[in-house]
Design brief:
Layout (H helix, E strand, L loop, with lengths): L2 H34 L4 E2 L3 E6 L11 E4 L21 E2 L1 E2 L5 E9 L2 H13 L6 E4 L4 E4 L6 E3 L6 E7 L10 E2 L3 H16 L12 E8 L5 E16 L4 E12 L1
Antiparallel strand pairs: 1-5, 2-3, 2-14, 4-11, 6-10, 6-12, 7-8, 8-9, 12-13, 13-14
Length: 250
């Protein structure tokens, strides 16, 4: 091989390596650009108080309300700030908007009903729970029943969630009533039976979320919501705590 051929071959190899490096650089820039506009949804901790619903015929404290002051169930009711129904803020800490947000709730319905009925049978309550394709029903002797339409609570949709840097008012979601209803039944029925609650560890609530970014790329996340109880009043007529959320997978 002559010197001219060696020089030509070296130039060709150099051009090839340079083109490869340019390609890798452009691809990395595209990845960084895509990541910079990727939505990132999070749910902050929210404190709540649970009390008896004034329109319900049952003694279960199924009305969960925000406790922004953190004062709990033993606060001075006359001086405590007014409370509103519990809502969980959904925050987008990414730089891009999330579009066509779809959320599906799930939790161990059968297990929770079994435990609630076990508490009721070993206590003084005549309450009994059952579940069908429509929802979760409560019956009691000498009184009206109550049904939570779980089928209509499983799916939540939002048109968009803007980044927190550009959103003045944050969007919120409500925990499904069927879940809070059974959690409240656990606490109340467990406290009214001999021996009290077997555990205050409430089953988690799972949210599977799908959404599109501004490039129409689909993202799927799973979150676990957990209600931790701080204090219980009397025989479980009221209680307070907070709801935490953790990402399970991407």
């Amino acid at each position: 091989m002559t010197i001219d051929q060696v020089i030509a071959l070296s130039s060709s190899i150099g051009a090839f390596l340079s083109a490869g490096a340019t390609f890798l650089t452009v691809r990395e820039m595209q990845k960084q650009r895509s990541a910079s506009f990727r939505p990132e949804l999070v749910f902050p901790r929210v404190h709540f108080c649970a009390n008896k619903n004034p329109i319900s015929a049952t003694p279960i404290p199924s009305e969960w309300q925000e406790d922004t002051s953190g004062s709990g169930v033993f606060a001075d009711s006359e001086n405590a700030p007014p409370r509103k129904s519990l809502a969980i803020p959904i925050l987008n800490v990414g730089l891009g908007a999330a579009r066509s947000v779809s959320l599906v709730w799930s939790f161990p319905v059968d297990d929770m009903i079994f435990q609630a009925n076990t508490y009721a049978k070993t206590g003084t309550s005549s309450i009994a729970f059952s579940v069908d394709k429509v929802g979760i029903s409560l019956t009691q002797d000498g009184g009206r029943g109550e049904t939570s339409l779980w089928r209509n609570q499983q799916h939540v949709t939002l048109d968009y969630v803007l980044p927190t840097s550009s959103e003045v008012t944050h969007q919120t979601i409500s925990l499904p009533h069927a879940y809070t209803f059974l959690c409240s039944a656990w606490i109340h029925l467990g406290m009214t039976r001999k021996g009290g609650l077997a555990s205050v560890e409430l089953p988690p609530l799972t949210a599977t979320i799908e959404y599109l970014d501004i490039a129409d790329q689909l993202h799927r996340r799973q979150f676990t919501f957990k209600a931790d109880i701080r204090a219980i009043a009397g025989n479980g007529s009221a209680f307070d705590g907070y709801v935490d959320c953790a990402a399970v997978s991407k």
